[in-house]
Design brief:
The chain has 290 residues and is mainly alpha-helical. The protein contains 15 helices and no strands. Helix 3 packs across helix 15. The longest helix has 36 residues. The chain is flat.
Length: 290
């Protein structure tokens, strides 16, 4: 009985700690949501905690009525979807040859790839290169330069190396070529790590700020993060939405900031639970194989 009681006590302590940590992580988001839905007086007097005070949706109405914000949101969705697809495709087709013994220069190529993790050409040379390629003021400037992440490539290659070679040998006996082996064996067995790296790439694209700030000059091409900079720092939301000074004064900046944070964060929070199981499994397997 004492052993069973001790086990129950340990389980209770573990669950209590996990719940406490979860609440600690959730509190900032819940607080921001409450602030975004609270009225001016409650925010100024700092009465808002986890529940809205003086419920109002003016901040969200202001954001959604701004055509530039909606355009920036769509640009970010486009960059995230297209960029993630290209990232995964390039990572897979680069990692696959690097596990083949018959590729004699794979060791040299891997060293050159790792070299890029240690040294970078610099911001100015990168900008000059993008200008020569005609990518400045184009959304492709946010996608193509980072088509492959060295860290993610190493994870993918390590995972591929852990797949039993007997499966590949059986496929060769059945007459499969390299492309068929990749599509029918390696990719189906690597869905966990692919989902994990897809999440890494998607979050990186969604949160990308510096590249958009450097390469984009047209307001119509601004991504969400650059637009957030305007909303939170330059106080552009009222002007871009065409509101007069009296109307803008009724919209509390803290409420606007909170609303913008919720709108920009919510899509990632909605997507994450659907691939969480793949995320955990992919990270663990990719870390211990090889």
């Amino acid at each position: 009985m004492s052993a069973r009681n001790g086990s129950r006590t340990a389980t209770f302590i573990i669950y209590s700690i996990v719940i406490l940590l979860s609440l600690t992580c959730l509190f900032p988001f819940i607080h921001m949501l409450a602030v975004s839905l609270s009225d001016q007086q409650s925010i100024i007097t700092m009465k808002v905690s986890v529940l809205p005070r003086g419920f109002q949706t003016l901040s969200y109405q202001t954001i959604l009525q701004d055509p530039n914000f909606f355009r920036s949101f769509s640009n970010t969705v486009y960059v995230t979807l297209v960029g993630t697809a290209i990232n995964l495709a390039m990572t897979i087709i680069t990692a696959y040859p690097l596990i083949k013994r018959k590729v004699k220069i794979r060791s040299l190529v891997m060293k050159l790839i790792v070299f890029t993790m240690l040294f970078h050409g610099g911001t100015i040379p990168a900008y000059l290169l993008m200008r020569e390629l005609g990518l400045v003021n184009s959304l492709w400037a946010l996608i193509l330069p980072g088509a492959i992440s060295t860290f993610n490539l190493i994870i993918m290659r390590t995972f591929f190396m852990g797949i039993p070679k007997e499966l590949e040998e059986a496929a060769i006996i059945d007459g499969c070529n390299e492309l068929q082996i990749l599509l029918k064996i390696y990719i189906p067995l690597s869905l966990a790590v692919i989902a994990t790296l897809g999440l890494f790439y998607a979050v990186a694209h969604w949160n990308s700020y510096m590249n958009a700030l450097i390469y984009l000059n047209d307001v119509k091409l601004y991504t969400l993060q650059v637009k957030l900079k305007q909303l939170l720092i330059d106080d552009q939301i009222g002007q871009s939405a065409g509101m007069d000074a009296d109307t803008r004064s009724t919209v509390v900046q803290e409420s606007l900031k909170a609303a913008v944070i919720i709108v920009s964060t919510l899509p990632i929070l909605v997507v994450y639970p659907w691939i969480q199981k793949y995320f955990v499994k992919g990270v663990m397997i990719g870390a211990i194989k090889g």
